[in-house]
Automatic annotation (TrEMBL):
Keywords: Methyltransferase, S-adenosyl-L-methionine, Transferase. The keyword Glycoprotein does not apply. InterPro entries: SAM-dependent_MTases_sf (IPR029063). One of its GO terms (molecular function) is methyltransferase activity. The lineage of its organism: Bacteria, Bacillati, Actinomycetota, Actinomycetes, Geodermatophilales. This is Methyltransferase domain-containing protein. The keyword Transferase applies. It comes from the Bacteria.
Length: 249
């Protein structure tokens, strides 16, 4: 079964257009890759990648998410190319990652919406770096502090926006830890300290998250606009998320 090119946006959220466009150069070339998806949950990225012919290992702490992943992969006809492992990104060394032909390291790792919630982003990135082969790449997508500030301000919560600007918890006293947000320079420094060589960062969901849910905007037009703005300042600076491809030397 052949998947559409990820950047075509078919069946894929327009918010992730910039991420898929960056992955196209790696995953769309027709060469099967060994992919590690850390925190990949129910397979939003894993299943489309498997449909392109890649072998994907998903690591996630949620048994429910991995059960959904298994069902989704079987329904898509790629159950033999997707495997799920229950575990945490900061303990990859405890998991049997070397099985299923991944000896020598993975060609590509995904770390999407993970650094915001892990105990220590540096530890998690270090584990991912060691799981890559030399020359392998990691795709990191995470929340952008500037975008979070703008979103809170536009939704009528200036005090929360100011707290985020100052890197404080916008809702102190909550029972769950606050999600981290990253400035681009902070994320790039984190990647370099993990032994990775980051490429230029891009904005994710520059405008799509600002559209009203009832908007009748043409999704294809929004996708094209997202791709045009993803690498362009000042627009990318206030995107909802940040995306970087980084290479293990």
């Amino acid at each position: 079964m052949t998947a559409p090119a990820p950047s075509s946006g078919e069946h894929l959220p327009v918010q992730t257009a910039a991420v898929w466009a960056a992955l196209d150069a790696l995953a769309g070339g027709g060469t099967p890759l060994r992919v590690l998806d850390v925190g990949g949950g129910s397979g939003v990225f894993a299943v489309p990648l498997a449909r392109l012919g890649h072998q994907v290992t998903v690591v996630d702490p949620s048994a429910d998410a991995l059960a959904t992943l298994e069902r989704r992969a079987k329904t898509a006809g790629v159950g033999d190319r997707v495997r799920g492992l229950q575990g945490d990104g900061d303990l990859l060394h405890e998991l049997p990652l070397a099985e299923h032909g991944s000896e020598g390291g993975y060609d590509l790792a995904l770390c999407h919406a993970v650094l915001e919630v892990v105990d220590d982003p540096a530890t998690t990135l270090g584990e991912i770096t060691r799981a890559l082969r030399p020359g392998g790449q990691v795709s990191v997508a995470t929340a952008n502090r500037a975008g979070a500030v703008l979103a809170r301000a536009l939704s009528g919560h200036p005090k929360e926006a100011l707290a985020l600007l100052e890197d404080r918890d916008p809702a102190p006293g909550r029972t769950r830890p606050a999600r981290r947000r990253f400035a681009p320079d902070d994320l790039l420094a984190l990647l370099r300290n993990a032994g990775l060589e980051p490429a230029e960062w891009r904005g994710v969901a520059v405008v799509s998250d600002l559209l009203d849910a009832t908007s009748d905007a043409d999704p294809e037009a929004v996708r094209r606009l997202e791709l045009a703005l993803a690498g362009t300042s000042p627009y990318r600076d206030v995107a909802t998320g940040l995306h970087v491809l980084a290479t293990r030397p």
